[in-house]
Design brief:
- By secondary structure, the chain is of the alpha/beta class.
- The chain has helices at residues 5-20, 36-45, 60-68, 106-115, 146-155, 185-193, and strands at residues 29-32, 54-57, 84-87, 91-92, 98-99, 119-124, 137-141, 159-162, 174-178, 198-201, 203-204, 211-216, 219-223.
- The protein is globular and about 50 Å long.
- The two termini are 28 Å apart.
Length: 224
């Protein structure tokens, strides 16, 4: 029997809840990511509402799903620390460095993750890569800097394309960048962050995941 990608996402969402439950107390706040895998995680988390106090969401989309399940959603400014942040990824390598932002929530994801003690990445095996970069790198940009950032990105070897018909929860456009050579994702993340007008880039390499739960045809594997 072969599991579909949807079934693998459901399996890793359940595994994530099993993984984080021992880390939670009734007073805990859980950081929650964005995307189809994060959606499934929210659905599983909702079965354990007594195990934690509230959540902080990395997008309006996730906040709405949490609220619909009756889970309290806090503003990040109300929270000093969280034991765990759980989110998907578009690509993840053996160092647990990721490309994120396919759903456009990269900036809030990086901020919420930075407040959590651990980042638990949940993904199906199609997201595991030897080298980051086949997935176009999302970069959230201030509107007035679209052209200037595109030119700076070209100097770093990337071809930027405006994500059509999309605005982030922060009111900004996204550039999706192809063509980067990503031997050193950490260094490239710093270089892109330094471009004036860049709000956030989708490399999560300076602060990779703490642990990755990867759903495979042979079961959910834990990478550390
Ligand atoms: C959203 C993200 C998501 O985590 C990433 O796009 C993976 O999404 P999915 O679980 O739907 O494959 O970074 O900004």
């Amino acid at each position: 029997m072969t599991f579909s990608q949807q079934e693998l996402k459901e399996q890793v969402a359940k595994a994530a809840v099993d993984y984080i439950l021992p880390l939670l107390t009734p007073g805990s706040v859980v950081g929650v990511g964005t995307g189809s895998t994060a959606d499934l995680f929210i659905d599983q988390l909702a079965k354990h509402k007594d195990a934690f106090r509230a959540a902080v969401a990395s997008s309006e989309r996730s906040a709405k799903r949490l609220t619909n399940h009756g889970i309290a959603v806090l503003d990040l400014n109300e929270v000093q620390t969280m034991p765990v942040y759980v989110d998907g990824a578009d690509e993840i390598n053996a160092l647990l460095q990721m490309i994120k932002g396919g759903g456009g929530a990269l900036t809030r994801e990086k901020i919420v993750a930075s407040v959590a003690e651990r980042f638990v990445c949940i993904a199906d095996e199609s997201k595991v890569v030897a080298e980051l970069g086949a997935f176009k790198l999302p970069i959230e940009v201030l509107p007035m800097a679209l052209q200037s950032v595109s030119r700076q990105v070209a100097k770093l070897g990337g071809q930027a394309q405006l994500r059509q018909g999309f605005t982030t929860d922060n009111g900004n456009p996204i550039l999706d960048v192809a063509g980067f050579s990503v031997a050193d994702a950490r260094s490239l993340e710093c270089q892109i962050n330094d471009i004036p007008g860049v709000v956030c880039c989708g490399f999560f390499a300076k602060s990779p995941a703490t642990v990755a739960l990867i759903a495979t045809q042979e079961g959910v594997k834990t990478l550390t």
